[in-house]
Amino acid sequence: MIVKMLQVGPIMTNCYIVGCEETKQGAIIDPGGNGEHILAKVRQLGLEIKYVINTHCHFDHCLANKEVMEGLTESQQQPPLLAIHQAEEPMLKSGGGAALFGLRGFSSPPADVYLEEGDVLTLGQVKLKVLYTPGHSVGSVSLLNEQEKAVFDGDVLFNMGIGRADLTGGNRETLMDSIRNKLLTLPDDTVVYSGHGPATTIGRERAGNPFLTDR
Questions:
Q1: What is the pTM of this model?
Q2: What angle do CA 110, 115, 116 make, to 5 degrees?
Q3: What's the pLDDT tens digit per position in 88-124?
Q4: What are the extents of the domains in the chain?
Q5: CATH number corresponding to 2-212
Q6: Which is it for the CA torsion 183, 188, 189, 192, positive or negative?
Q7: What CA–CA distance (Å, rounded) separates 131 from 176?
């Protein structure tokens, strides 16, 4: 599986480009800004993007949705599909909270696909299984590749941290439930690709994350 991470947008969000090495089908996870930079990397990798996925719809994870979707629609034979959990739709339509940070004029195309627990997105030989992991927001999802033991979890679990639960739609108890019952049940060597900061593993977080010591 191809995995490329780019730090994008006003607060340096991790955007991931993932794809199948054999078929060159791919997906963009959380295009939070710098759309042309993301598109340039896609071209460099030679990928045909099947999905643009928002793990959740806070602005820093979807700021470049429009730019990326339009650029790919122009350059590919088949336009990509924008995928979110349906509970995130109000946040996407309202600008993802960007106005609270002084960012005006943000808009995104509407979602083409609503993600649910257990859905599988296929990119050639790569399969991304949807885990519903709310708590940071009402519709946060994580994307699990079981074969290569990798999970893209947005702002749920970080390297020695957890996501905020004090933003609109957040709930600390729900967040901890998602971490305990969806992420910590994964094998210890599963790599966690988060929305901010460096990658980690489930085992490392289980053993040493200070926010999980009361589990």
A1: 0.96
A2: 145
A3: 999 999 888 887 777 776 889 999 999 999 999 999 9
A4: 2-212
A5: 3.60.15.10
A6: positive
A7: 14
